[in-house]
């Protein structure tokens, strides 16, 4: 029997990771946050002042980047060349650049290839933008999440200010719409709803309700 793959895609700050994590915990699947990988690459680019317009520099940087997930902690850690960067990649400085970096063809090819390699391991839940369309077009279950822009901005604002980041609601709103625009209009694997995806608008749903909907979908096809 083949490994089971659940793909969760959608706009920025829709709560994809929250649902994906809860699902993975419940089903004992491996959770993979593909956005964290693009954020790690972005952090590397910022730290090393990589010229994004220079393909040579981009390829050189990619060859030097090793990303690992350490799942055996309460919160999955993400390592960039051995360094724990789990917190740093959530900062605004990274969010502001990540969609530009993620639109680079060479970056996408490298990340998609790494994500596809994880398939051989175990049952997985992966969240991102192009998982059901490009990374695993044959995923067993595809969810496409949305929520109203104001709900999304409020959630992200609360999350950032709780961590002590000095941001305004306007900056958060601006960043979300900026990323959604670039993510949906880029040439290489843009954010798209897969035709066979189940749409989940969670503007008015609790986390438990969302989990129940996705679990029901899973049990109905399992
Ligand atoms: O999921 P998260 O919001 O952390 O992702 C950060 C950014 O990474 C997205 O705005 C998008 O530009 C990029 N991304 C992507 N493809 C994925 C996951 C994330 O392009 N599969």
Automatic annotation (TrEMBL):
Record EC number: 2.7.4.25
Enzyme class per UniProt: transferase
A single Gene Ontology CC term: cytosol
Superkingdom of origin: Bacteria
SUPFAM superfamilies xrefs: P-loop containing nucleoside triphosphate hydrolases
Domain Cytidylate kinase residues, every copy: 6-217
GO BP of this protein: nucleobase-containing small molecule interconversion; pyrimidine nucleotide metabolic process
Sequence positions that bind ATP: 10-18
Record localization: Cytoplasm
InterPro entries: Cytidylate_kin, Cytidylate_kinase_dom, P-loop_NTPase
Alphabetically ordered keywords of this record: ATP-binding, Cytoplasm, Kinase, Nucleotide-binding, Transferase
Molecular function via GO: ATP binding; CMP kinase activity; dCMP kinase activity
UniProt main location, coarse: cytoplasm
Reactions accelerated catalytically: dCMP + ATP = dCDP + ADP; CMP + ATP = CDP + ADP
Similarity section: Belongs to the cytidylate kinase family. Type 1 subfamily.
PANTHER family linked to this entry: CYTIDYLATE KINASE, CYTIDYLATE KINASE/PANTOATE-BETA-ALANINE LIGASE
Protein name: Cytidylate kinase
Lineage, uppermost ranks: Bacteria, Pseudomonadati, Bacteroidota, Sphingobacteriia, Sphingobacteriales
Originating gene: cmk
